[in-house]
Amino acid sequence: MSTDISDPGHGHSPAAWIAVVIMLVAFSIGTVAFFFAVEWLVWASAVLLVLGAIAGWALAKAGYGVGGSRVTASEH
């Protein structure tokens, strides 16, 4: 028995990839900084996490999101 599962396509864009990579780096840095009790670096990584989300939103608005004008069909 085969089930047709259609992919909604969310997240398959340059905007999503860049946002996720920035946020993963921020989370990783924040985790290590928290472990070593480097408070300023924990807060800096929290700021970087927010900037990653803003970068993803800005890139999506610039046409690099799913279905954006600057994304070719092969990148989906």
From TrEMBL:
Keyword Membrane on entry: yes
Keywords: Membrane, Transmembrane, Transmembrane helix
Keyword Transmembrane: yes
Chain ranges passing through the membrane: 15-36, 42-60
Species assigned in the record: Agromyces rhizosphaerae
InterPro entries in the cross-refs: DUF6704
Protein name as it appears in the record: DUF4175 domain-containing protein
